[in-house]
Amino acid sequence: MANVLNKYAESLLEVAKGQGVEHSVYADLLEIKKAVAKDAAFTAFADNPKVSHESRKAFVAETFKGVDTPLKNLLNILADRKQLGYLPGIADAYVTYYNAANEQAKMKVESVYALSTEELDALGKVFIEKTGYKKLLIENIINESLIGGIRATIGTTVYDGSVINELNQLSKSFQKQ
Fold first, then answer.
1. H-helix or E-strand spanning residue 159
2. pLDDT tens digit string along 52-89?
3. Which site from 45, 81, 162, 174 is most exposed, i.e. has the minimal number of CB atoms within 10 Å?
């Protein structure tokens, strides 16, 4: 199924880019995912094989009035194929393709306290130089178990400069002796 989600997302990005609306489609998909992810009624509707073709089309037409044409077309295709439940997965795949195309990545910064905008900007600049990305989308997460310092995660790479990590490394070195 991941392959299907990727094909939908990749095609959507290609068409949206061609029409110059890839940024608004990105924003719309994030909003749609946030809205439907926690909506049990949407999930029940999307997964119900007894819902008629007309009802699905009417739902798309009424619910997604303001979205750009490429996204509306995809939503109609999903409604036709009874695949509206794929929306959250397609949104995730689109974000991955969009980020790669725009040389950006999500960065999770864990710290003991909330970092200021200036501190996050400074960290972003350091990691942009280190990774070569053009832009990092930084999320600050409070994690008091770090004791101090930060732990940054970009994709699957973890940069751990926390006090707890240093203590663990010190403990391991003592155990080796």
1. strand 157-160
2. 989 999 999 999 999 999 999 999 999 999 999 999 99
3. 174
